[in-house]
Design goal:
The chain is of the alpha/beta class. It has helices spanning 33-44, 59-73, 93-107, 125-137, 151-160, 179-188, 207-216, 220-230, 242-248, 258-265, and strands spanning 10-12, 18-20, 24-25, 49-51, 81-86, 112-117, 141-147, 167-171, 191-195, 234-235. This is Diketogulonate reductase-like aldo/keto reductase.
């Protein structure tokens, strides 16, 4: 169990890179001033990790938000941890290298802290992984990893890989706790990261979670995010509203008990809001 954290605390990836435990996600947030302001708000309120992807089609605004936030805060770029992902259509050795350049250009950055393969497209992800290894060996990206990979996908990649994935970002919330994947990831030194930690808002009225939240004087969202952290899972809740950005990060002043954790663990139904990585029509 991971405890005694604050918003700037980091987990050490297996290559020694420090990755914040907590960040902001921008899935389905459109390009524009709202997104720029959300990034600036997040950095202003202590966030140091920002997660985007090529398919979100918002890297330009994310980059603008980062530049403006750094200018206003006087924080060095090195203190931010920026993630993007290569989309399915670009999986392949040369196409992945080109996709990385495109993402960098849109973001207006010289490097990414983490670059991920977005989905395990059969027959394509191993060539893409080779490209990520090249980018990593050339020092063009600080860390590389995957997203939505199941255990068998990870085993398949690692069979031929020269560099083991550092991160696996997956759908993870109380109704999809992926215990075996979490156990395997810890054994292999691969950091698990949660997308859709609040199940796109579907868990906010769950009676068990509401009861635990009431006991701690916290919101259901805060309880879920705290549960992620205490399981040693990096989490990146999405929000564009400043008050919600602040509220989401207010999870470092309380701790769930072992009984709370067990109760939340017991809610698992292997229920997804996103596609099944093994049956996703790419």
């Amino acid at each position: 169990m991971v405890t005694n954290l604050n918003l700037q605390d980091t987990t050490t990836l297996h290559n020694g890179i420090q990755m914040p435990w907590f960040g902001i996600g921008v899935f389905k947030v459109e390009e524009g001033s709202e997104l720029v302001q959300a990034i600036k708000s997040a950095v202003k309120h202590g966030y140091r990790s920002i997660d985007t992807a090529a398919i979100y089609e918002n890297e330009t605004s994310v980059g603008q938000g980062i530049r403006e936030a750094l200018l206003e805060s006087q924080i060095p770029r090195e203190e931010l941890f920026v993630t993007s992902k290569v989309w399915n259509a670009d999986l392949g050795y040369e196409s992945t290298l080109a996709a990385y350049e495109t993402s960098l250009n849109k973001l207006g950055l010289e490097y990414l802290d983490l670059y991920l393969i977005h989905w395990p497209v059969k027959g394509k992800y191993k060539e893409a992984w080779r490209a990520l290894e090249t980018l990593y060996k050339e020092g063009r990206v600080k860390a590389i990893g995957v997203s939505n990979f199941q255990i068998h996908h990870l085993e398949d990649v690692m069979k031929d890989a020269e560099v083991r994935p550092m991160v696996n970002q997956v759908e993870y919330h109380p109704l999809l706790s992926q215990k075996e994947l979490l156990r395997f990831s810890k054994e292999q030194g691969i950091q698990l990261e949660a997308w859709s930690p609040l199940m796109q808002g579907q868990l906010l009225d769950h009676p068990v979670l509401k009861e635990i939240a009431s006991k701690h004087g916290k919101s259901v969202a805060q309880v879920i995010l705290r549960w992620d952290l205490q399981h040693g899972v990096v989490t990146i809740p999405k929000s564009t509203k400043e008050h919600r950005i602040i509220e989401n990060a207010s999870v470092f002043d309380f701790e769930l008990t072992a009984a709370d954790i067990a109760q939340i663990d017991g809610l698992n139904q292997d229920q997804r809001v996103g596609p099944d990585p093994d049956n996703f029509d790419f």
